[in-house]
Amino acid sequence: KLENSIEDILCEYLDFTLLHSDKPLSLRQRENAVQVLFDKGIFNIKGAIPMVAKYLKISEPSVYRYLKAIKKKV
């Protein structure tokens, strides 16, 4: 299931308590999480962006902005 695989990858990278806490992630943590998912190819899967936004507790446009910045570096 796609939703589980995204959560598994996030949990591998982020502290599980950070991912499931009420406290929002820092900008650096969000950017790093999107970078890891990008490197793993998650964003090649249709429907991944809304799921990532949900798990990181950010908006979909934020995910797109982080991806744009990542692609600009490459």
From TrEMBL:
Domain Transcriptional regulator DauR-like HTH: 21-68
Signal peptide range: none
Family matches, as PANTHER family: TRANSCRIPTIONAL REGULATOR DAUR
Record's protein name: Helix-turn-helix domain-containing protein
Source organism (scientific name): Gardnerella vaginalis
